[in-house]
Amino acid sequence: MSCTSYVTTMAAYNAWMNGKVYAAAARLPEDEVMRERGAFFGSIFGTLSHLVVADTVWLRRFATDPMHADALAPVRAMPAPARLDERPCADLAALARRRSELDAVLVAWTDGLTDAALRGTLRYADMRGNPHARDVFALLMHLFNHQTHHRGQATTLLSQAGQDVGVTDLVAMPTH
Hints:
Layout: H1 3-26, H2 30-34, H3 44-63, H4 66-69, H5 73-76, H6 92-111, H7 115-118, E1 121-125, E2 131-135, H8 136-160
């Protein structure tokens, strides 16, 4: 599998799993989604909000590179998060719409990436303004790994709330 194939597969997996997680969360009453559960980001909503915020931050960073700017224009139009624990939406329905928008942009962007683009370097500033220069492929792997990590926390919280997300294995993802 090439790097581009891997990245497009991970973007598709991300979207598929986010759909499953949000569907499970939507089966709960809103107060259960918002309830403090002792997780790192507090609640199911807080955990899902963190993932939206982190993906927005990273995709906005990628969008600063002219090579990626056009494909990521929709994310540049979204408000820039100020904190990683920010709650960019008031409720689960609005957060699910934002998640869906981010996933659509991520899938479309990665579908157009080349091996040369993945070998490139992204220069960006972190949330404190510190400059960095990192490999594009490695940063995308970080984005997908970060999603999997916190989505795992969300699936645990959902399970504790009586909602089964179902199979989460990559090999179980439907192929189109």
